[in-house]
């Protein structure tokens, strides 16, 4: 971490509740909570509402702990990148030591409390997820390899497996499929972001694919991963977490998503940077809707099946 960020952190004023809440990456936490909730409710074993509520709360806290520790470690590059320079540490609102202590405390609390509230398989999965995101992705992969997002994406894919484990006490093919759906979605989602934020990664020295292999290679990778994701998403529709409603939505969403990736792949090299950014930003925004709707329809199918209305 840079001397500049350390100096600014050392004179940070007393942090407010909002500053510490920002360390939790609330936008990312929303996705964590939603996919974990879908995993829990899609499981065949019913869960008492109080246990379900407590479990989702501790999963959310664990996701937030990962965000705080990520910001602690990345304080130096966050201060350089336009997208992240207003985060609490580079903005001088929270010190690095405060973020570290906050993240470690929440990591231990969330893992232990989830194990006590539900079962130790779920607690262990949450603890491993935090470790994977902070140590494997943030500390190792992010600054070392352009495949950082591909491998590191596993961290964001675990929440539905954790939710499923809360209900069942284990892992099954259905929870693995939900994991794979998020895992395969992550690279095209973040590479689209990297295409229109490349200068940030250049300045920070982060070896994103756009920096190490260029835009053309990144666009090819986006298209390939999107096609593979579409095959996986449609294949999930014929399993027990799918059904006619899921399949109808999946067909439309994946046609749109593959079309968006095709547009990025075949964009005119003579187009202005502004016009290109419109295409890439559009795909990035669609990717957010894509994942939420897929998991939303998995949830709808699960509810319908409880009433004997869904499934094949």
TrEMBL record:
Gene3D superfamilies: UbiA prenyltransferase. It holds the Pfam family UbiA. One of its GO terms (molecular function) is protoheme IX farnesyltransferase activity. Coiled coil: none annotated. The chain crosses the membrane at residues 28-45, 51-73, 94-114, 120-141, 148-170, 176-197, 218-238, 244-262, 283-304. It catalyses: heme b + (2E,6E)-farnesyl diphosphate + H2O = Fe(II)-heme o + diphosphate. Pathway: Porphyrin-containing compound metabolism; heme O biosynthesis; heme O from protoheme: step 1/1. InterPro entries: Protohaem_IX_farnesylTrfase, UbiA_prenyltransferase, UbiA_prenylTrfase_CS, UbiA_sf. Keywords: Cell membrane, Heme biosynthesis, Membrane, Transferase, Transmembrane, Transmembrane helix. Its main location: membrane. The keyword Cell wall biogenesis/degradation does not apply. GO terms for cellular component: plasma membrane. It is found in: Cell membrane. It is a multi-pass membrane protein. Its EC number is 2.5.1.141. HAMAP family: CyoE_CtaB. NCBIfam families: cyoE_ctaB, PRK04375.1-2. Converts heme B (protoheme IX) to heme O by substitution of the vinyl group on carbon 2 of heme B porphyrin ring with a hydroxyethyl farnesyl side group. Interacts with CtaA. Belongs to the UbiA prenyltransferase family. Protoheme IX farnesyltransferase subfamily. Carbon 2 of the heme B porphyrin ring is defined according to the Fischer nomenclature. This is Protoheme IX farnesyltransferase.
